[in-house]
Amino acid sequence: MTFKKKRNLLTVSMLLGTCLTLLLASFTAFAEYSEIIGGEVLRLHILPHSDCCKDQRLKEQLRDFIIADMEMRFAGTRTLDEAMQIAETHLAEIQKSAALFVAAQGHDYDVTAELVSMYFTTRVYENITMPAGNYAALRITIGAGAGRNWWCVVFPPLCLPAVTGSEPYFSPGVSEVIETGGRIEVRFKVYEWWTKVFG
């Protein structure tokens, strides 16, 4: 191999190494923000009894009922700790009102409400992409809880009607990371794979 070819090979190798270093540095920062997001969010997770039409319809009806209830309870909440405290304080009430609502629709399913930490894959909600990871969630289970689930974010209040036209609060840097876009969603998928393999 001539000196010129060796020099060209070395130059290409250095350029590739620099690009890889920059890419890893960028991804590391992105992964750090993705982990921060999990500590700023309370999700609402509703599991219907089954996938039959009437159970899925009941899920949607209960969803609307719970969202309206959460809108009042979480008004003015500024931190996840506050949201968690409200949810925990009113958990028995939430379960009772959800059970009464289900019964009023003509169903005799048991209903449970619980605060859990659970793993979610990368999910898109309107113009927001939430990275895969463990999140605090208010989980409401109807009957066997064996049907297709529904979720949204109750804190910051992304699924509450009262926030129309207002900006949900995230810590600095996080909002830019979670805004939906083709490249962002690809990066979230890579992050999801990375956490499964190396997490």
List key phrases describing it:
globular, alpha+beta, 199 residues, four-stranded mixed beta sheet
Gross geometry: globular
Poorly predicted residue ranges: 22-30, 162-169, 180-184
What is the N-to-C succession of helices and strands?
HEHHHEEEEEHH
The count of helical stretches stands at 6
Gap from first CA to last CA: 43 Å
Structural class: alpha+beta
On the 0-100 scale, what is the average pLDDT? 75
Number of domains: 1
The order of strands across the largest sheet is 2-5-1-6
**β-sheet strand percentage:** 15-25%
The radius of gyration over CA amounts to 22 Å
Query: Percentage of helical residues?
Result: 40-55%
Number of strands: 6
Largest sheet: 4 strands, mixed
Blueprint of the fold:
Blueprint: H1 3-38, E1 42-47, H2 53-73, H3 80-89, H4 91-104, E2 111-120, E3 123-125, E4 128-130, E5 133-142, E6 150-155, H5 174-178, H6 182-198
Parallel strand pairs: 1-5
Antiparallel strand pairs: 1-6, 2-5, 3-4
